[in-house]
Specification:
Elements (H helix, E strand, L loop, with lengths): L11 E8 L3 H19 L3 E5 L4 H7 L5 H9 L2 E6 L14 H11 L4 E7 L12 H4 L3 E7 L11 E4 L5 E4 L6 H16 L4 E6 L5 H17 L4 E6 H10 L6 E4 L1 H14 L7 E8 L5 E7 L16 H13 L4 H16 L2 E2 L9 E2 L2 H15 L1
Parallel strand pairs: 1-2, 1-3, 3-12, 5-10, 8-9, 8-10, 13-14
Antiparallel strand pairs: 4-5, 4-11, 6-7, 11-12
Helix pairs in contact: 1-10, 1-12, 6-7, 8-9, 10-11, 11-12
The structure holds nicotinamide-adenine-dinucleotide.
């Protein structure tokens, strides 16, 4: 644990939850970067580490203990690896590793999910899209995470009098739910390209009509400095593969965000490179509860073999520096070190290309530290 006495600012309290499969392997490499920042930049971190998911089931019989949940609520930010694996697949639904993750999201009230899609020059050819379409891509999909059709009532499957069955889910959004996600979108855009595209299906859904009106109202009241446009979700899916660089921040609901963020992710060509952040409401001091995690899962097929790419988790830590700690310079440093190791030709197995240097999980960590020493 880093001591705070020698540092000017208060230590940043981070709860690290490595989880299962490749989670602990990739997290070890991030810990080395955290140590580097403490040594070289005199940034104090107070790190607490706990098991989550399958690892917590094995240790405590539950995917997330109350103690760990309390720690998450009292940390400045949470960094999660990944949970799950075949060992725990047959447990009842309430006991599964993923329940730990859902409880964290629910009790921290993480309503805003940030999924950047960035194409590093060195990997632009890995995209299934043409180089000229994706080169230099840097967009952010902002998905509302706790409302909409995945949670709306009524829901369920009923049997009708004639014996046929009916499945129902309800798309619901209230004004406050739309306002708070719109505010996050405008805040994000202010730190980026100053453009927000709000996405719904106002042509066929009343919830979409309300979404459009409320986002426009928040814009007109609070965010006139940001260029706001509106787009139907089906068109947005097309535009993402036709000309993704037209976007800066896309803000959308839970369902459309689920689909569009995966679509945008694939523009970058690699699961091992994709970070994410989930943010809650701001408190009186402007601080938001936050959890950062790679988009990928626990990859049991490669766990324990030194094959995992640690960059998605490292970039998630970079997002933590930017969005929880307002350390834009350090976040930039991590992104520049990542670009540098890729430019130098280092590749983990998942992003290996002919003529490049294949490195293990630790080898990628070594390369990152070397790059940090050079540019930091
Ligand atoms: P996955 O993301 O774990 O793996 C998909 C494929 O991508 C695998 O071939 C894997 O080897 C590869 N891959 C993923 N991350 C990589 C990395 N960093 N470096 C190199 N290769 C990487 O998805 P899956 O196979 O569908 O799920 C495996 C387990 O993870 C399941 O138990 C699932 O429930 C869980 N899961 C957890 C999360 C999470 O914790 N947020 C997310 C998705 C899946």
């Amino acid at each position: 644990m880093a001591k705070t006495g020698m540092f000017k600012t208060q230590a940043k309290r981070i709860l690290i939850l490595p989880g299962d499969g490749i989670g602990p392997e990739v997290m070890s490499e991030v810990r080395r970067v955290v140590d580097w920042l403490t040594r070289k930049r005199k940034i104090a971190f107070e790190i607490t580490e706990r098991p989550v998911g399958g690892a917590s089931i094995d240790a405590f019989g539950t995917p997330l203990t109350d103690d760990t949940m309390a720690l998450a609520l009292h940390s400045d930010a949470v960094l999660l690896g990944a949970v799950g694996g075949p060992k725990w697949d047959n447990l009842p639904f309430e006991k599964k590793p993923e329940r730990g993750l859902l409880r964290l999201r629910k009790e921290m009230e993480l309503f805003a999910n940030l999924r950047p899609a960035v194409v590093f020059d060195a990997l632009a050819e890995a995209s299934t899209l043409k180089l000229e379409v994706v080169k230099g891509l840097d967009i952010m999909i902002l998905r509302e995470l706790v409302g909409g059709v995945y949670f709306g009532e009524p829901r369920g499957i009923t049997t009708l009098p004639d014996g046929t069955r009916k499945g129902v889910n309800t798309q619901v959004y209230t004004t406050p739910e739309i306002e708070r996600i719109a505010r996050v979108a405008f805040d994000l855009a202010r730190k980026r390209g100053k453009k927000v595209c709000s996405v719904e299906k106002a042509n066929v859904m009343e919830s979409g009509v309300l979404w459009r009106e409320v986002v426009q109202d928040v814009h007109d009241r609070e965010a006139k400095d940001i260029a706001l446009s509106h787009m139907y979700a089906d068109n947005c899916a097309m535009q993402l593969v036709r000309n993704p660089r037209q976007f800066d921040v896309i803000v959308t609901d839970n369902l459309f965000g689920d689909l569009l963020s995966d679509c945008a992710a694939m523009l970058t060509g690699s699961l091992g490179m994709l970070p994410s952040a989930s943010l809650g409401a701001a408190d009186a001091a402007g601080r938001r509860k936050a959890m950062y995690e790679p988009v990928h899962g626990s990859a049991p097929d490669i766990a324990g073999q030194g094959l995992a790419n640690p960059l998605a988790t490292l970039l998630s830590f970079g997002m933590m520096l930017r969005y929880s700690f307002d350390m834009g310079a350090e976040a930039d440093l991590i992104e520049r070190a990542t670009a540098a190791v890729l430019d130098q030709g280092y590749r983990s197995a998942d992003i290996m290309q002919p003529g490049k240097t294949k490195v293990s999980t630790t080898g990628m960590g070594d390369a990152i530290l070397k790059a940090l020493d050079q540019i930091g």
